[in-house]
Amino acid sequence: MAVKKAHRYCLDTVKPVRDALDVLQGKWKLPIIISIGAGNDRYTDIQDSIPGITPKVLAKELKELEQHQLINRVITEGYPVKIAYYTTAHSDTLWPIIFALKDWGLNHRKQIFRKV
Amino acid sequence: MAVKKAHRYCLDTVKPVRDALDVLQGKWKLPIIISIGAGNDRYTDIQDSIPGITPKVLAKELKELEQHQLINRVITEGYPVKIAYYTTAHSDTLWPIIFALKDWGLNHRKQIFRKV
DNA sequence: CCGTATCCTGCACGATACTG
DNA sequence: CAGTATCGTGCAGGATACGG
């Protein structure tokens, strides 16, 4: 065979996974979505809910997430102006990934402590 | 309340997700596991099945994956010596994550083309 | 309250050549 | 076949201070 069967099957899975990783990769993107999804809608709230994130990094990540339609930045005029972040219908489809990662992360800890 | 409810809930999810990301993060780890899981057990097979990966990077990633008990490196004596890589029971538990990422990646493409 | 502005650092990743 | 050896680079991420 010109191309191995396993290679073809592998590519069919790897390609979309890479598309997902390209958008979700990094230390902060999913934590930020989790935080906003949990109800933290203000910048300071989000920052306080994610230990270790700096304002510069948070601002950059928020912009990228907005560009990818994973969050909405909503400005409400008034005194003072209110700025809030919300998840989108699109980012709501991320929860299967997040829960899968959460479950696996919990299990991974057990696995490491058992064997090492 | 001293700590917002949303912060507490957020942390409960973020922490295990970070544990998972710490191990799985990067451009190549999941693709390599997918490739080995698809039946590519030889070094060259894996390399050929993942477009763009260089031998140096592949070697480094394989070592890290082995350390995290996500793959086994099996040496079979003989002429010539045979070296093969296999998934582990632990890495088999990654498939929910992989399939979730695959589904989301496919859907994300559609989403992007629709809106932009 | 919601961010910018600077400055800095490491390492993830890449190109290319070579080896037992 | 299964990797090392060198060399190189960009950018994710961090520390700190400041601004409308």
Tell me what the structure shows.
Two copies of one chain form a homodimer. Helix content of chain A is about 65%, strand content about 10%. With about 120 residues, chain A is mainly alpha-helical. In chain A, strands 1-2 form a two-stranded antiparallel ribbon. The longest helix of chain A is centred in the C-terminal third of the chain and has 21 residues, at about 95-115. The first copy, chain A, is extended, with a radius of gyration of 18 Å. The model of chain A has no long low-confidence stretch (mean pLDDT about 95). Chains A and B meet through helix 1, helix 2, helix 3 and helix 6 of A and helix 1, helix 2, helix 3 and helix 6 of B. Chain A binds a DNA duplex (20 and 20 nucleotides) through helix 3 and helix 4.
Short descriptors:
homodimer; 116 residues; mainly alpha; two-stranded antiparallel ribbon; 2 strands; 64% helix; DNA-binding
- The share of residues in helices of chain A is 55-70%
Number of DSSP strand runs of chain A: 2
What sort of overall outline of chain A do the alpha carbons produce when their principal axes are compared?
extended
C-alpha Rg of chain A, in Å? 18 Å
Mean pLDDT over the residues of chain A: 94
- Given as residue ranges, the uncertain stretches of chain A (5+ residues, pLDDT < 50) are none
Identify the biggest protein-protein contact and residues per side.
Answer: A-B, 52 and 52 residues
Tell me the span between the first and last alpha carbons of chain A. 43 Å
**Count of helical regions of chain A:** 6
Sheet with most strands: strand arrangement of chain A: 1-2
Oligomer status: homodimer
